[in-house]
Design goal:
The complex is a heterodimer of chains A (313) and B (288). Chain A has helices spanning 3-15, 19-51, 64-67, 74-81, 83-102, 105-115, 120-131, 138-149, 169-197, 201-209, 214-238, 246-252, 258-261, 264-274, 278-306, and strands at 57-58, 69-70. With 313 residues, chain A is mainly α. In chain A, helix 4 (74-81) packs across helix 15 and helix 5 (83-102) crosses helix 14. Chain A has two domains: 3-70, no CATH class; 74-306, MetI-like fold. Chain B is mainly α. Chain B folds into two domains: 14-58, no CATH class; 68-284, MetI-like fold (Orthogonal Bundle), CATH 1.10.3720.10. Chain B is 73% helix and 0% strand. Classes of the chains: A mainly alpha (313), B mainly alpha (288).
Chain lengths: 313, 288
């Protein structure tokens, strides 16, 4: 070891670099690994949050976000006076509630019944079929629904139905619920099946020895054991009540059912992207985001009461 | 221990089997109906009713669809945003996740909040559009890649996985003088294959099926992705192969053939998807 080497290093020790430099030397690589992703997050998730100011401005393309004039709450007033926005809000709530009532319990019932299928091979085949629609985009599923329900090519003629339920305001919302059941209820069973498979088998053995019937075992062991999962999922779902399913509605709706089908997301999309009214659409979006945020925070807090691991926050 | 089943149980079992038979059939039949229409001749397709088999079997519709340049372009575009989207999203996301997984780093709390806030709040479609426009990516396939390039929810999932890896391996490597970069690529990522596979599939499925972003950011026909093209064809806004064929047969059978062709790639990877999605839901769904 030569003198120069010792000298260089003794200086380094005696110099006492600042905490920042020291940390950077020690941990610099970790930040470097995360930096590209953080930059993307900042650019495409955080800068748009700043862009929300155009909800309070009269945005013009050539003036840019900052150059456009402030207009206060003009766009919000316009939204609340406008009947379409109120209608979209109501429709969103109605469609979400219908799905909550008539879609949400379906996976748990399917999972309980599926768990009683004794033949593993049969069960596997059933699962493979009913999971499939989950992986297919609404663009394709909508095409299939159009065909199936068309008066000419579809199956409705067998029941003597002449007009497509897609064009009927009375049945359209139910169609949304049913098509959601078709697409996702099979897939939704997975989480409950996982919860069921984690139940301690000795519970069932003890119950059997005590003379509990199969039905009683489901009622008094399986159901209580997965109730927690159900409640937590239900609460978290309620946090997203303003997301009634943009893709599904956008693919399936048409002018005939607009008054019952138009949801916040489709309304905002239309006025913003199709009509180019950027500020108005942003005001609508901000309104939805803020209520959505409050809902998510509340439901996460609530879910934690039932399960301390639940939720993301 | 085999317990003899009561009559009631046997009746229930039979009904249960029949129920799932019906449910599976009802789930599958719409797809089959579409297949049958796509292979039927035009006149017979329009008779409707239940299809057990194509009527007047022919492949004219497929010939027409497969000769369309638009479909091939859209297919290639979708493949491009899916493959690149997965690679970039998983690499960048894993990098952020690795940084956030180190609890002792200065700024850890801040970074954690940075991720969480971006999950629960967002600027909405218009402000995001303006930023994408500002970065010059409107009407570029890259818009759809950068928007998926770091999904905060996936970051949280990967972070949780990294934190559960045994720390002794990393520590001894550090002791031997390996840099964190080397450790990340040679130790952490190889040990995290299950979560990387799961997240890759999440990204792949959402990229392949994404419609909204394609609609917003891609207006030029040469940039169309598959779901957008399919939607156009179904709505009759586009004919499949160009203008002249519309009158001939760009009708229901051609639409059906387009839908079936778009389904094929998903069906091909479906066994793989099913396996890894099922694993993945244990990693993420309860937490998320």
């Amino acid at each position: 070891m030569n003198d120069a080497f010792i000298k260089k290093h003794s200086i380094a020790v005696h110099k006492k670099p600042s905490a920042f430099v020291k940390n950077l030397k020690k941990y610099g690589w970790y930040y470097a690994i995360g930096l590209p992703g953080l930059l993307i997050l900042f650019t495409y998730r955080y800068l748009p949050m700043g862009g929300l100011v155009i909800a309070f401005k009269d945005y013009h393309v050539n003036k840019g976000i900052w150059g456009s004039e402030w207009v206060g709450l003009k766009w919000f007033e316009m939204l609340f006076i406008n009947g379409d926005f109120a209608a979209a809000f109501t429709n969103t709530l109605i469609i979400s509630m219908l799905k909550l009532l008539f879609y949400f319990p379906v996976p748990i019932i399917l999972a309980l019944l599926m768990n009683e299928l004794a033949n593993r091979y049969y069960r596997r085949v059933v699962q493979t079929i009913i999971y499939l629609p989950h992986f297919i985009s609404w663009a394709i599923l909508a095409g299939i629904i159009f065909t199936l329900l068309s008066p000419q090519m579809g199956i409705l003629g067998l029941f003597g139905i002449k007009e497509s339920p897609l064009l009927d305001g009375g049945s359209f919302r139910w169609l949304l619920v049913f098509s959601e059941v078709w697409k996702d209820s099979g897939w939704g069973t997975i989480i409950y099946l996982a919860a069921i498979s984690s139940i301690d088998p000795s519970l069932y053995e003890a119950a059997t020895i005590d003379g509990a019937s199969r039905f009683q075992r489901v009622l008094y062991i399986t159901l209580p054991c997965i109730a927690g999962t159900f409640i937590v999922l239900l609460i978290l779902k309620m946090g997203h009540i303003l997301n009634a399913g943009f893709n599904q509605v956008y693919m399936l709706y048409n002018p005939n059912v607009m008054n019952v089908a138009d949801i916040l997301d489709t309304y905002i999309f239309r006025i913003g992207i199709s009509n180019g009214r950027f500020s108005l659409a942003t005001a609508g979006g901000l309104f939805k985001s803020v209520i959505g945020l409050i809902m998510v925070l509340m439901t996460n807090r609530l879910a934690k009461i039932f399960d301390s691991d639940a939720g993301i926050i | 221990m085999k317990i003899k089943k009561s009559t009631g149980e046997r009746i229930f079992d039979t009904f249960n089997i029949l129920f799932f038979f019906t449910f599976s059939l009802a789930t599958f039949y719409p797809f089959w109906h579409e297949v049958c229409i796509s292979f039927s001749d035009k006149v017979n397709a329009l008779r409707g009713g239940i299809f057990l088999w194509p009527r007047g079997f022919n492949v004219e519709a497929y010939k027409l669809v497969l000769s369309s340049q638009y479909l091939i372009t859209a297919f290639t575009n979708s493949l491009f945003i899916t493959v690149l989207g997965v690679i970039i999203s998983v690499m960048l996301g894993a990098g952020v996740a690795y940084l956030v997984s180190k609890k002792h780093l200065p700024g850890h709390k801040f970074l954690n909040m940075f991720i969480i806030i971006s999950i629960i709040f967002n600027g909405g479609i218009i402000p995001t559009y303006l930023i994408v426009k500002g970065t010059g990516l409107v009407d570029s396939l890259w818009a759809l890649i950068v928007l998926a390039a770091c999904t905060p929810f996936n970051v949280v999932i990967m972070k949780n996985f990294f934190q559960n890896l045994p720390s002794s391996l990393e520590e001894s490597a550090l002791m031997d003088g390996a840099s964190p970069l080397l450790i990340f690529f040679r130790i952490v990522l190889p040990l995290s294959k299950p979560v990387l596979a799961t997240v890759s599939i999440w990204v792949a499925v959402s990229q392949w099926n994404d419609y909204m972003r394609g609609l917003i950011y891609l207006t030029d026909r040469s940039n169309y992705i598959l779901p957008v093209l399919i939607r156009d064809i179904i709505n009759g806004q586009s004919d499949v192969a160009g203008q002249e064929v519309m009158s001939e047969s760009s009708t229901e059978t051609v639409k059906a053939a387009t839908i079936i062709i778009a389904l094929v790639p998903i069906l091909m990877v479906y066994p793989f998807l099913q396996k890894h999605f099922t694993k993945g839901i244990m990693l993420g769904a309860v937490k998320g």
